[in-house]
Write the structure tokens for this entry.
Amino acid sequence: MPLPTRRLIAALAGAGLLLTGLVAPATAGPTPTALVRPGDDNGLGLDADGSVLHEVSTRPIAPGLDLTSFQRLEDQGWTTGNILVADLTEPTLSMQVLDSGTTTTPATVLDQVAGTGAVAAVNGNHFDMNYTNVPIFTTITGGEVINGYAQPYPAFTMTDGVAAIEYLSAAGALTVGEATHDLAGLNRATVPVNGIGAYNERWGDASLDRPAGVPGETDVATAVVQGGVVTAVTDGTGTAGVPAGAQVLLGRGTGAATLRALEVGQAVEISISPSSDVDLGIGGNVPLVLDGEVAEFPDEAVAARTVLGLTEDGSELIVATVDGRGATARGLTRIEMAELMIDLGAYNAVNIDGGGSTTMVARPAGGTEVELVNTPSDGSARVVANSLAFFSSADAERLTDVAVRPALTDPDAHNIIPGLTRTVEGVGLSDQLAGVPATGVTTVSSPGGAPSGRDANAVITQRQRTGAVLTGVTPGPVTVTYRATRITGTAEFTVLGPLDHVTASRQQIALDAAGDTATISLAAHDGDGFTAPVETADVEASVTEGFTVTPNGRDTFTVTATTQSGSALVTFEVAGELVQVPVTVGLTTAPVTDLADGASWRFAQDRASGTLTTTTGPDGQHALRLQHDFTTSTATRGSYAVAPAPIVIAGQPQAITMAVDGDGTGVWPRLQVRDGDGVVRQLDGPLVTWEGWREVTFTVPPGAPFPLTLERVRLMETRSAASYHGDISFADIDAVVAPDVAQPEAAPVHDPVIVTDGTVTGYSQQIAVMSDAQFVGRNPESDIVAAARRTLAEIVAADPDLLIINGDLVDEGAPIDFDLARRVLTEEVGDAVPWLYVPGNHEIMGGSIGEFEAAFGPAQQVTDLDGTRIITLDTSAGSLRAGGLDQIRMLEDALDAAAAEPAVTGVVVFFHHPTEDPLPGDASQISDRYEAAAVDALLAEFRATSGRSIAVINSHVGAFHARSFDGVSNVINGNSGKSPASTPADGGFTGWTLLGIDPAAGVVGANPAPVTSRLAWLRAEVRPRVDSLALEVPTEMTVGEVGLVAGTVTQDEVRDVPVAWPMSADWSGDGVSISDGTGTDLEPAAQVLRLNPATGEVTAVAPGTATVVLTVNGISQEVVVTVGEG
């Protein structure tokens, strides 16, 4: 549909929007105190298109101007955008087109608005990038044509306060006596053949060679006109730039002939006028929306976009940008952008410059400077031709309102840990919403407390003229009030539970040379996984010689190397909790192997065939060549070069490099290493999408125990649709090594959701969880099948209310695998326990989820179990998103329904891949970290807003583990058949989990008690497979003596597992008092021993004989202890 040249928007009755300069001050409406409105999409309906995992907030910028920022997951990927909504009836709001001062000198949008007083701006016209840099469509500001083109293009325009989207052009005439010649425009990027273009001072000092046409074109002439008189006529493009007060005419072909006919001193008249008498105009390339419908235009690939749209009544301008080429921003096609604009309320919209040019800046309420709002797809803000800027004439200096906020910008800065501090600042707001000085008084209060704040959950420990320093006291909400000149602002803070542990923003720091620096920050966590940033005032930081560590502002430290080579541990102490970070300076490269023994390496494979031969590298060095056939299976395939013996890698490498001769197939190279704990790990390289030799880096994850031992080079193909013959060579395997540094002894975080002493049989509901047996149908009598059968038999004996098979019961997802799985479940479980089967990645190896569903039913289900909602989801393709957005919508809908149903007191969500892998390397977690964070946030939001409990249960890691985040318990079930992937002490054993749930404790309310409310609802009993159980206890003691007890479970005759977290056990006995040391009760007189399972200490308290009993998964051992007089 062609865009009509008439105005599309009717005049706004009484509209007061002016385009030239700032309008006279007017009385501003009420200023919002909230500097940010989380969850508020400003009525834009950003959740109305079927997208999921929305994150949105709105910030006021100035009267009549709001900024809404959003991120959401759509079928094609993540979209991140920012939307300025301008109320065009607001009399204090105005717009201008800005540039650097000359149209040929591009600048970033931030530089263009600097010093102008603009409150927001967005990039403008498409431009002649890399050549003249001038806009390629008509541009008008303040009624002045800056760039004019005779060809009309769609544009956003303003005339006397009336907004429109219309076709706009600007051309002119050269009058010489009685003759008139057409002018193709003003300050154009190019002059058409046989045409004449005009240029004025706004052109700047640039040459006119580019506008003259192709390089070397000779049929060109210029004429300089000053005060209506020709002052020079020249063949060619003449001197670069335009003289002050002059105009230069540039002609090509017949246009050049016209200019050559001019004579110096001859009077001429030059006129340039737009097609419509507008005050402001900024052109785009295509209309995206016409009369509320997607316009007709050629679509384009996804990219960052900038679009201007108007509502049907013309009262609002919608300026939308979407980011592109990023992890959370794939960009949009033109059609997708048009559909978004319609969703936002645009009736007509025009596409302006996008891609790397897309830029939005704004000065948020309470601020004094504009700041970059979006994430440019180039990685930094691009220099652009011009920008559309917003101004406010409201008073920028008079204090009319105040707000209060944390001095830190961290999103968790509204949280406070008891005993730690939080700096808050009062913010003065003018009529314009600009930040202005506001000296005032800060007070605190809590619900039900005295107005004086004496019994508030936080106290003021330092008063400041523009804020205060608070210290957390007891868990609960805190209202902070700031009062300045009888104006009051408030903000809500939360004191979390007691400090549980502290983490650093970096696990290690590697610096190249003396003088190099790195920044690091700390976060404090309570026992429920809530987080609060730590202010530097609460930290004691130290480091040994060779480095310095100094505070850098309120929440970061700077670590500086003072030597060329060395290492140290940076130690941070927060309220008695220590966190250490290794720091090194200087890197060296050391050979791992030169492959001189290449003939001794051997070929291995999974579901493939191939060969391994010696060859030469790019410089004639030894190399190995892997050729493989990946056409015989659609399951995951592998082609491997296996070292003749494990190769010890000296030192503490941060990365391994290897020269790779790529074949462009997209195969995935990995290095298999064994770490210092004996755990096999994979170091990942990039997909081989290139051809020819290239150095590839395989990063060693922080925290990996040294030394590392290289075992094999692996080439993996996980794409079921990929089928090809591959040919990859490799050479020069080297280690990038930093100086050795002592690895910090980090205190482990043992979440108490896992019972370490006792059972969950006292809870009214039990749900058994098994996963990761990974058997194959072609070997039904294997040890793994036997282990799965044993696990199922144990579960049936426990008589739970429900069994969840949480993925990877089978290995290859073949029909024969599913047949065996059905047979095993029928024979071992039958109808004794109802069960649900959640698919893992091995359920679709080489196939589709449809084959699993045909065998076992829906991959996603929602069911209720006496007050507990059970939600099972599909991450078989590696993420929730890969399983389809419908299941994420199902999750959101199921949570919404659970929040509204009084009978539902808690929710347990099951899916195979965890959002966070506890093992070094993070190889088993959902790889899209934004999806993982968004899912965690969704679950946490349910607990916070509904007052009901929620937990998430995962598997896949190969180890048992548990954590909590924002009040949500996250339990990871280990392997129930396959060998584990971690050390025994870190959950690397086989077994299953029994969840205990008390629906009566599921409703926790708005301010749940830290930890206890979470554990009252759900706990997990981790039951290992016990082949044998040993118990070590001193058999003879004297009163007052303290000894140690220890239990050990043996599995498969080779794995000794300590009886400690994350394993559950039940300690009891005769004459034994079991206490974790937290109680205050006196020792019962009849007891001989006191045993603390948390510390492993046993204390002799009275003479006599006692029996210590340890039970693990139904297997018991006991030891008799005799206590004599001290």
Q: What stands out?
A: The CA atoms of residues 406 and 424 lie 4 Å apart. The mean pLDDT is 93. The chain has nine helices and 79 strands. Residues 588-738 form a domain with the Jelly Rolls fold (CATH 2.60.120.260).
